[in-house]
Amino acid sequence: MTWNQPSTWRSYVTLGVIFLAAAGLRLWHLDRVPSGVWIDECIEGLQAQALRRGETLPESPALPFPRWPVWCAVEAMSSGVGGDTAGALRLPAALAGLAGVALGFIAGRAVLGPVAGLGAAAFIGGSFWHLQFSRMALPCI
């Protein structure tokens, strides 16, 4: 058996290594990197905090309503468990980034085979742009 036709266990072990590396890149020092909290992350955090307390959502001229109500609810749950910290606010984006790695594997495997699926997962897992948006509390991921 060659690497062109990997066995099932070998491809899943390789996927596990890729997934662990992607998780390490996305979750390591999530509360400190990038440093500080960006203004868009603050707005998302304020909306999640207001939703968690049952208050009306804060209004501003730039954002009179929550842009993504489902995302706001997920961030409210995350900050409810982890507190009002940058790490808890960024955790849903990091988990969505990990889901993107898994979906890249599934799509690549379905279209071009298991080797392409592993390549897609590795590409998405190490992609600078995907990694950057996985570490910010923004729904663009």
What's the topology here?
Elements: H1 8-27, H2 39-53, H3 69-82, H4 86-112, H5 114-126, H6 128-134
Produce a short descriptive summary:
The chain is mainly alpha-helical. The chain has helices at about 10-25, 40-55, 70-80, 85-110, 115-125, 130-135. It is built from six helices and no strands.
Describe the structure.
The protein has 141 residues and is mostly helical. 68% of the residues lie in helices and 0% in strands. The chain has helices at 8-27, 39-53, 69-82, 86-112, 114-126, 128-134. The protein is elongated.
Mean pLDDT: 84
Oligomeric state of the chains present here? single chain
Q: Which parts are unreliable, with pLDDT below 50 for 5 consecutive residues or more?
A: none
Number of strands: 0
The coarse overall form would be elongated
Rg for CA atoms: 18 Å
* Structural class computed from helices and strand pairing: mainly alpha
- Biggest β-sheet description: none
- Helical segment count: 6
Helix content: 55-70%
What is the terminal-to-terminal distance? 38 Å
Share in β-strands: under 5%
Helices and strands, in order, run as HHHHHH
Question: Which properties best describe this structure?
Answer:
141 residues
